[in-house]
């Protein structure tokens, strides 16, 4: 390899010619946000530093210009970087963000589109041209539960389910399979494992943590690093290994009130004992990279905390790889923007993740190195660490044999995922030994999640929030219904899928109802109560309807966190926490359905790695805390040998459900508390059928100027606007508009002209539209103070029926209908 590398190097002006001035004074950190390395346990990287690698890196750096060195410290997103731009801006890395497609533009395209994308960036970075040192880019991807952003990949259960397995050996196999499918897709680097230890289940990333306690996380971190990277110092991209990134450093799961990107208001002892063990074991296992967290520790952003990034991580913990930032997180450091942040580099960040402002950050960082704001020694340290990882991973060797392997969603990988699903299930209730489903039984399968693979895979799947996915987006995968049907029929029974839960024909012996949360990811997933479906208990209504007919009910609950489901538990004879199982629905049937002889095919082995709440207000409900009083304790999980009846549970939530709802305003048949839907002006209204319900829609006839409004408490939609959420309206035009129609969000906003949008709709047909909140902000909406999240106006001659109004996380198909309308 060395001969190949040496032959490709081109000697040019060295970085030593750049002017270096005295570094500015560093603002001291508050005492409670200053880490003391002497208090921390020791760790040390293995497999990264050796004499040959360091000599090569030294030789390479001597030939690099300052511009090329700074470029190594910048990572842009493929949605905003063109391969040819690397000739002027020699970026060290590119990433494929959660919503970013390959260069073909088709995010549901074949894996070859991703390989071509990776190759396009790689070839420009290593091409021979005057004044350029060929250094390959490193391509990063959020392979957080399998190679989950690529069409056709194996999707493993999310971490919360894997934590329930307590099986480090299987975790290492999952890591190896993830690495193989990632390397085969052109990726060099997986942004995982996530080793957060969530302490407040309101946090929208709870499912990314293995457990509320560090014990499981410590074991799993090392296992996943070994699986992704191989034995320390041996794993190369050529043999199907990728760089791991343990994240998010540090205490992202410990923020106050479970607020994403919030502040961990904890002492250093808690930081060390609860939140650090996964990093210590991951570093000792050879983790090549660490990702810094958006969050803060006692008011200081981690991206700007030198005592954590440098003194602890690179000092006492002996980390010799490189530290990468999170999505524009450096821009949150006081005094910084996404385009300019010397503070973060000086604190110890080696590579900034700057999706779209990468040119400005590059130019500003270059100037700040030249004027001494960023010391040259800090640049050289960062670049050495980045190049070290690239060398050890084999990126300087252009051969990429793993990209030729057709292993995406292979039977071997799906078998591993299926085993993980089976091992992750936790049996919370099994009164009267209803499970397993016996041979020859007539089984009704229903529920919103029964035959929906997108629901069972959750967030960070094919898109950032995991929304908008259909079964067609998962070739080779199996829904929970599909797995149950095969297993039930193999045991001599019959299985019937009923989407609405209605029973036709003979009464079933048992009903399996599959329901739960809808997909979400960070920020969007933050909630204010742990009550499931507050104010809109559709699943509970279905359970009650089945129980009212005397049908025994098995509930399979899909969720990214423990939730208060006491009413649903009371209506269930058996209740299974399946978390977010991924693409292999057969794994659920493997445990729920008996063999032909009536004995269990597989027993339940999952144990809760998160405590289950007794009320909807038990947000921080962790074993070992004062006053610990869960419904189901950490480590709980029944087996078929257990005969423990769960009595009737209290159905007093303890939290006002309406306080939780800032995103769903109208569902078929009713406005959702605390919101009200009303009209004013020359508008008449009546109920009409819609949304699958009799009188489930509300029809509004504009006979002159008037408005239809959703109104309620003041809410802040700033984060939702920044996260590309849209206002979604499900409607039917009954009489096409003869005049102007406007659409607005906010109290004093200038509405947008939506006339063309409603005029283009086919009369009499139900349809939907999504308008980005950013469109309303651009029109003047104060998204930070919203009491009217939906205002539809018309000057007359227009009739529309509305069946749904809510915020939508999927940006696909969203449109800005027109320019701001005149007041």
Question: How does this model look, in words?
Answer:
The protein is built from 22 helices and 27 strands. α6 packs parallel to α7, α7 packs parallel to α9 and α14 crosses α19. It starts with a helix and ends in a 15-residue tail after the last strand.
Keywords:
single chain; ten-stranded antiparallel sheet; 22 helices; alpha/beta; globular; 26% helix; 823 residues; 27 strands
Helix-strand layout with pairing:
Elements: H1 2-8, H2 51-63, H3 66-72, E1 74-77, E2 93-96, H4 111-126, E3 138-141, H5 159-165, H6 168-183, E4 189-190, H7 214-229, E5 245-249, E6 263-264, H8 268-275, H9 277-284, E7 289-292, E8 296-297, E9 300-301, H10 306-316, E10 322-324, H11 342-347, E11 352-353, H12 358-370, H13 376-393, H14 411-424, E12 426-430, E13 442-446, H15 453-457, H16 480-490, E14 494-497, E15 510-516, H17 538-548, E16 553-558, H18 566-570, E17 574-577, H19 586-592, E18 664-667, E19 670-671, E20 676-690, E21 693-711, H20 718-722, E22 726-735, E23 741-744, E24 752-753, H21 755-760, E25 766-772, H22 773-778, E26 790-794, E27 798-808
Parallel strand pairs: 1-2, 1-11, 2-3, 3-4, 5-7, 6-8, 7-10, 13-14, 13-15, 15-16, 16-17
Antiparallel strand pairs: 8-9, 12-17, 18-19, 18-27, 20-21, 21-26, 21-27, 22-25, 22-27, 23-24, 23-26
Helix pairs in contact: 2-13, 5-14, 6-7, 6-14, 7-9, 14-19, 16-19
